[in-house]
Design brief:
Length: about 375
Amino acid sequence: MTSPNRLVPRPGIDQIKAYVPGQTVEAQGRSIKLSANESALGPSPKAVEAYKAAAERMFRYPDADAFAIRSMIAKTYNLNVARILMGIGSDELLSALVRAYAGPDDEVLYPTATFPMYRIYTLATGAKVVQATDREYGADIDALLAKVTPKTKIVILANPNNPTGTYTSKKELERLRAGLRDDILLIIDAAYAEYVEREDYDAGASLVDATMNTVMSRTFSKIHGMAGLRLGWCYACEDIISVVGRIRSPFNVSTPAQAAGIAALEDTTFQRQVIDHTRRWRETLIQRMKGYGLSITGTEGNFVNIGFPDVPGRKAADLDAFLKNKGISVRPMAMFGLPQHLRITVGRDDEMQSLLEAIEAFYAGAKGNA
Ligand SMILES: Cc1ncc(COP(=O)(O)O)c(C=O)c1O
């Protein structure tokens, strides 16, 4: 019997399907996880050391201002420390930004094949999701601008984009900002900024400094290999920082996370190794997959997103199942709106060698069956 006083969540929450993280499988005595865009090389040993050293201080609340790590970020990237806010991963900050600037009856606009959390943040506030059609698997600035209505409150752009690996140039980003009303917040989610190899790319700080309505978010989960510690930050004008600062948890970033983050930023040699390793394997993977006649949607990030033909035995799902049986998990892209694609994260040397061998075996078998 339904009570007239039935407890119901806010409108919009019923439409949310819980986020499904990248999976792990075990088969043939091994488990290779290439499904969550984690870092191939893990964290810097110096970050691990700093984390352990901070353990003694766990009885104290962390520095609510996270001043030391914010100062280190400001120094590293030549930014204004007052414009930096730390979060429990960039996820907390993205969620708080949407909560702060959108609500029931508002619209949040973003491209089609992109990070599925944007949908969850939006629906959780009661706002409406509006998506612009992509161009060649990347953000189409004209299509985004065409979808702006008087109700648009926020535009979100992952740059580079997860899962497609495409990027938007600095010029195009500026064109997008210039085409948006001043009362629309532009969020540039630059989670994969460090892996980009493009002269015309900018993670977004200059646009933040030039405007009062733009935010750039960054993370320690990717390049710094600290996804399990939950550490991210955003850069925005003081007004936006003050708004988000008021609704975040006061002690959001733990003492060990702050300490490890500082050590990770200091270890530039390790960062260089991660970047070189990732780009090298990314290119190898791209060339191999192209060699099998497959398409690649974009080349940035620590992953490769691959398009498969709709041919029985050769589909994305077929390779996914084959790899699972060999203990290798990659990410099917249906949840990201691309059912014929698989996204593969760059792993360690041995993991990538195993992956390439498995893929070779798959195509050798597929040929044999043809
Ligand atoms: C585009 C994008 N933004 C944000 C995030 C969230 O990162 P974090 O671990 O900092 O919450 C991810 C994680 O995969 C991502 O791909």
